Amino acid sequence: MRVEVFSEDFSRAGSWVRGMDARAKLAFAACCLFLSVGSSSVAVPVFAGIVSLALLSFSGTKAMPVLLRAGEPLVFAVFVGAIQTFLVKGEPLASFDVLGFTLTASREGMARGLLIVARVFGAVMVVLFLTMTTPVDRLLSAAAWMRLPSGLVEVTMFAYRYVFVLLEDAVTIYHAQRGRLGYAGLRRGLASAGTLAGSVFLRAFSQAEATGAAMSQRGYTGSYVPECRERLRGADAAILGGLLALVSTVFIWTY
Q1: Distance separating alpha carbons of residues 13 and 39, to the nearest angstrom
Q2: Which 3-state string (H, E, C) describes 37-102?
Q3: Domain range annotation of the chain
Q4: What pTM value is reported for the model?
Q5: Residues 118-151, buried b or exposed e (16+ Cβ, 10 A)?
Q6: How buried is 181 (Cβ within 10 angstroms: 0-12 exposed, 13-18 middle, 19+ buried)?
Q7: Do the bridges between strand 92-98 and strand 101-106 make them parallel or antiparallel, or are there none, so unpaired?
Q8: How far is CA 119 from the centre of its chain?
Q9: Are 120 and 46 a contacting pair, CB within 8 Å?
Q10: What's the Cα-to-Cα distance from 127 to each of 130, 163, 168, 199, 204, rounded to whole Å?
Q11: In contact, 66 and 132? CB cutoff 8 Å
Q12: Going residue by residue through the chain (255 aa), what tens digit of pLDDT does each one get?
């Protein structure tokens, strides 16, 4: 009985996170990114990342997609942070001889490297929470409601729509090349990859012209993304205020 109640409460929390107003999520993400980048302390971006990761967990998102999407930027951030440890001058911690060169790790460099890793972690988790729990149409409607440039919003909408069309064309061309032994060897593989890239590039231009002509014939006037007309729910506003208060408190405490 306790297990059933717990699972039911967890599913309700997941539906609440996914059903939260997109405007509240967008405002939370924007404030977290601003505070994480503007903070000189590791605690703020790490706290924002942990909160976003907890919200992702409550939403029912599986761990593997999150790890796959966050792995590449985090690995790159760790690499950059490690380089900063040896590039920034300061109080020496340790020295290493590599190929006749002496590399000295400094305390200030390590602190800067950790800050870079923390900022990347916080930013990646916030963006993943925003994108993996909110449909794109709601995000674009929220962006239009916040008076972001209409041209930017609409270009983003069309880009998101047709990137899958171009991806399907690229996969079709790739399989056709594989069937004709287009990747049997390094030289032929590079030539086939260049042909693939050129074909997708030309396909993007032709698709843009066809889409523009089709939209003009259907009376497109330059306003396509509908804004959010309903009022922000009190529960979403209260949750947004609580989350921002937590992150802001950590920012002020560590400033």
Answers
A1: 30
A2: HHCCCCHHHHHHHHHHHHHHHHCCCCHHHHHHHHHHHHHHHHHHHHHHHHHCCCCEEEEEEECCEE
A3: 1-134+231-255, 135-224
A4: 0.76
A5: bbbbbbbbbbbbbebbbeeeebbbbbbbeeeeee
A6: exposed
A7: antiparallel
A8: 13
A9: no
A10: 5, 19, 26, 32, 27
A11: yes
A12: 333 333 344 345 456 777 788 888 888 999 999 988 888 888 999 999 999 998 888 888 888 888 889 888 999 999 988 888 888 777 777 777 766 667 777 888 888 889 999 999 999 999 999 888 888 888 888 888 887 787 788 888 888 888 888 888 888 988 888 888 888 888 888 888 888 888 888 888 888 888 878 877 877 766 666 666 677 788 878 888 888 888 888 888 887
Structure tokens given for 125: 């988790």
Copy the structure tokens of residue 201.
């590039």
- The two three-digit tokens of residue 103, written as one number: 């590399």
Q: Which two tokens stand for residue 97?
A: 């001889």
